[in-house]
Amino acid sequence: MAGPVMQGAGAGAAPKISLGGAMGGAGGGGAAPKPVPRLREDLQLLPGPTDLDGGPSWTILDPARGRYFNLSPEAVALLGAWGEGMPDRVVKRAVAATRLPLEVQDVDELARFLIANNLVAGDEPGMAGSYAAQKRAAKRGLFSWMLHNYLFVRVPLVRPDAWLDRLTPLGRMMFSWPALYGVIALMTLAFYLVGRQWDSFVHTFTSFLTIEGAVWFGAAMLIAKALHEMGHALAAKRFGCRVHSMGVALLVMMPVLYTDVSDAWRLADRRKRLVIGSAGMAVELTIGALATILWAMLPDGPARSAVFFLAAVSWLMTLLVNLNPLMRFDGYYILSDLIGVRNLQTRGFAMGRWHLRETLFGLNREPPELLPPRTRRAVLIYAYGAWIWRFFLFLGIAVLVYHLFFKVLGLLLASVEVAWFLVMPALREIGEWWKARDEMRLNRAMLRSLGVAAVLVALAVVPWRGDVGMPAVLEAVSSQRLHPPAPARIAEVLARPGQMVAAGDPVVRLVNPDLDQRILMVQLELDVTQRLLQRQAASAAAAAEVGVLEGRLAARLAELDGYLAERDRLVVRAPRDGVFRDPPPDLAPGLWVSPGRVLGRIVAAEGARIEAYVEGADLPRLDVGARGRFVTDDPARDPIEVVVTAVSATAAETLDQPVLASQNGGPIASEPDADRRPVPRNAVYRVWLEPVTTADLPAAGQPQMLRGMVRIAAPAESFAVATWRRAAAVLVRESGF
Fold first, then answer.
1. Which residue has the higher pLDDT, 632 or 206?
2. pTM of the prediction?
3. What is the residue-wise DSSP string for 441-474?
4. Distance CA 356, CA 351 (A)
């Protein structure tokens, strides 16, 4: 039979406890029975919320540590008879009072739980030594403390319970039905107003992705989160709970505010705990709704920007962070109360481990606790979802700490993060599988698991990847890019995209105000010099100065010719006959451009070539002469047979084909440099290919650039080998110190 259940709640919650052994009586190995340990006198027994089966529950409060422990009916029955002293008499009285099927082993189990959680009197025989041993065991070394606490450290700043008592009337007003209806009305109005200006709202958000915007965003977050925590505190006071502390927690070294409302566990009404858990989000949603309404009504200016940040922070943090039940924030406690499962994470993980082992091996073990079918499904969904979330969360944290610190320390912290929070839990679970090997039988679950494992291994190790994919662009064989000769401003675009131009035709006219100013100054100086020459020629006394003026005039004429030639070069002309193609989207009068900027291309009317980019991990599998197919993004075009003609031996510093860059909608992840040229984030190598035949090429006289994907036949490679090659490439790239 299942023994008495005690479950921890609140800070430091304990999982379901099942302890073996015996204190005396049955299973005592013939030893003399010992009396049950005496309970501490300061413990408080409080009524708890209705259990899942509709029965009552009880909670023990440890006021010295602020911890709560939920009791099952069996545990309550035993504690009611605890004063009998001896285990057999405790069981006899409890069974007589409740008719529950209790045994002496249940007393043993309950006593061990009470001792383990320091709920018994300290003057019991041997308890002083036990407490000292527990204290020594709880001490951690510096490395262990840093490992567990650099992710989350809580620093209490104030004990606000006294002054929060004076705000209790405000809490009653805020958390009432009229206030709820008012919040719903505000949110409805906010959604309506922002829906009418949605494009403007999104554009405002993206325009503030700057350092200054980050500062404003942080200030708005501080305000919103301070009011969020006040919401929790006022709701707790609304229902008569104490607020033990408020302060700052460091979450992955990022400061966040917190409020200790663990006293809410004393409430028997689950709905009141739901109100306390959701109070912070309700306050933030109210702030977000009010700020959104103000944003929609205010004119452009500092006030509108300020309320926009407040609205953005309130909506985003509430919906993306606080409402997420997979993190131990408000959404977690709300979900726990909604499905009626306290200590959801601990009990959910225990249920998930049991379900995983039963699914894989069919051990036919009893579940860690009996739950209604719907509740069990909800708990299992939470457990598996939390595991998947934690995997990506800890992996993301590892990447974050790697980039936050210098390389050696970042690599060390990232490795510890992955090893401690991902690898070690997996190894512990595999260890449990190994311990249960004697219980494993060749049943349906085992056969299914072996079949799935065989398929996964086959997919990983059997070479089945027989080609290499590369993003590519088909373009004319003769294609020349147009660049500005010097930094200048566009005055006029003289050719339209797709327009035929002849060699020497002007395509883009540029201007340089500084150059025009210098030309004007030289022309003015020439005019003055010529006037002086005319005046000096009429005076015989000044004949000696004429030679000086003539020399100055010649120098200024030569300087003017140079400036005019430079201005003439600012007219970008077509270098050959062809079609003007691929001007950048922002090419328009008034745009300043540098010599590295591509203004477009002049493409010949016949012939084509293909330029592709291959990842470094796939480079060794690519050989000159290999054949494949080029599939364009245009589904109306047939694939083109191609052959590899050349492969670059060095990685590309920039993408010569901007259409393949991610910022232009292409498949290659890249970011612009100072000259706005796309720079690939990962190592890619240029590959040049040619069509095998010209039958499927664009018709003569209608040249165009076609983007697509090239698939080249290559030696088959397994997924495991490919993954190892990519991982090795990353390790080599990041190993330089």
1. 632
2. 0.63
3. -S-HHHHHHHHHHHHHHHHHHS--EEEEEEEEEE
4. 9
